[in-house]
Amino acid sequence: MIEFSHVSKTYRGVRALDDVSFAVGPGCVTGFLGPNGAGKSTALRILTGLARATSGSATVFGRAYAELANPGARVGTLLDAGALHPGRTGRETLTLGAMMIGLPRTRVGEVLDLVGLTGREADRVVGGYSLGMRQRLCVGHALLGRPEVLVLDEPVNGLDPQGIHWMRVLLRGLADSGCSVLLSSHLLHEIEQVADRLVMIGRGRILAQGTVAELSRGRSLEETFLDLTANADRSVS
């Protein structure tokens, strides 16, 4: 379970998040949707302990991420595919991750197979990977511990159509097995294909949340989203 409760964040006098509240339950893919700069990444950084909220709380299993015992074994995260060490191979990257959370090395091979990085690809240095390959490796790293909660920031960046379809099937399967999935993106169409619920954010504020049917109300979801974000922009202009 993920829960944001009245989370606000101010950077140098600028309010990046404004009273953000929503929850993600087990067995659910929740799409966290908003334009670039809306506050999505800030919210996920607060959730995973990489930034501190000015007020409010963001918790996993009812506790702050930093308070969890061995959080990497329960919470899988993909926040920045560019943060991978370019001089390590994909296999070495996952091996180090497995060692840090106390997993056997056999798990590395399982994950490489799962994300489609095998043979020569697994043994190439990450600096020579395409963006899509780095995304797959980061997803693999997030899945090492067979997490109960998965937090992904723009996971389809750089993936080709086959890779995007693979991601949809993967996330749906994880949710169906009971995992709580929080999926951040600015790509409405991709979120709509896989999400059970949507949380729309703009200018750091929650604009709407609910199922696709609840939010569209007979209109296209794109029209609803554009209207909400336009209203958010006008309210601060």
From TrEMBL:
Signal peptide start and end residues: none
Record has Membrane as a keyword: no
This protein's UniProt keywords: ATP-binding, Nucleotide-binding, Transport
One MF annotation (Gene Ontology) recorded for this entry: ATP hydrolysis activity
PROSITE patterns linked to this entry: ABC_TRANSPORTER_2
Domain of life: Bacteria
Domain ABC transporter, chain residue ranges per copy: 2-228
Family that this chain belongs to: Belongs to the ABC transporter superfamily.
Record-given protein name: ABC transporter domain-containing protein
Keyword Nucleotide-binding appears in the UniProt entry: yes
Alphabetized SMART domains for the sequence: AAA (SM00382)
